[in-house]
Design brief:
This protein has helices at residues 40-46, 70-76, 91-102, 108-114, 131-143, 161-177, 189-195, 213-231, and strands at 3-12, 15-25, 29-33, 55-60, 63-64, 77-80, 149-153, 181-186, 198-203, 206-212. By secondary structure, it is α/β, with parallel strands linked by helices. The strands form two sheets. A six-stranded mixed β-sheet has the order 6-7-8-3-9-10, with helices on both faces. The longest helix has 19 residues, at 213-231. The chain is globular.
């Protein structure tokens, strides 16, 4: 199992965001799905110690993440945030940022190609790219660290339909060409269906369902049909 959460509770500013969460995320392509404010992005941040739970444990390959060095963990389990956060300069300088801090070598061309961008983007001003292109530069920057896991927080929420489809296509190709596991956070159950093999549904800080995508989302559709029948 890639990640396991055992009875995890997390509070922020005195408010409980996650309560007694127990969940498992296997190797491969997984999704944490739920409405805005449900706690799904917080759960994602616990996976690479951008936050630590008040109680309970988060395990990465069977080891409590609090027993690992946070920087080493974040190089192996890399988070791509919801909105692009690029530094000033070229695409090449952005891709180089993380590896240089970590003392790692990297291949700009390979990173750009895996992120769905032409290598010619390397010399372009990152600030002048479209939001969809910037999001893929963020992905290339994460890939430069050669992570084993990518954590993706609503990676297409700020994009139009065409850009969303391009990013989703990039993620599918990435999964087919590499051994990288993906944990995707989304409010869009159809995106979960398109990209994930395993889904955790979360609402109000609690896990409401988890399992293979077809099973979990089929259950949700049955619930929606039943609710509509009751309302009528």
């Amino acid at each position: 199992m890639l990640f396991e959460l055992e009875d995890v509770t997390y509070s922020r500013s005195g408010k409980v965001v996650l309560r007694d969460v127990s969940a498992r995320l296997p190797v491969g392509a997984s999704c944490v799905a739920g409405p805005s404010g449900s706690g799904k992005s917080t759960l994602l941040r616990l996976l690479n110690r951008l936050a630590d739970p008040d109680s309970g444990r988060v395990l990465y390959e069977g080891v409590d993440v609090r027993e690992t060095d946070p920087l080493a963990l974040r190089r192996e389990v890399s988070l791509v945030p919801q909105l692009p956060a690029l530094i000033e300069g070229t695409v090449q300088e952005n891709i180089a940022y993380g590896p240089r801090l970590a003392g790692h070598s990297f291949d700009t061309r390979s990173c750009l190609e895996l992120a769905g961008l032409d290598p010619a983007f390397a010399g372009r001003d990152a600030a002048k790219l479209s939001v969809g292109e910037q999001q893929r530069v963020m992905l290339a920057r994460a890939l430069a660290l050669e992570p084993r896991v990518l954590l993706l927080d609503e990676p297409t929420s700020a994009l139009d339909e065409a850009a969303r489809d391009a990013v989703e296509g990039t993620l599918r190709r990435l999964r087919s060409r590499t051994a990288i596991s993906i944990v995707l956070v989304t409010h869009d159950t159809e995106q979960a269906r398109r990209l994930a093999e395993y889904v955790i549904r979360i609402d109000g800080g609690r896990v409401t369902a988890q399992g293979p995508t077809d099973e979990v989302l089929s259950d949700r559709e049955e619930e929606a049909v039943a609710a509509a029948e009751d309302a009528s």
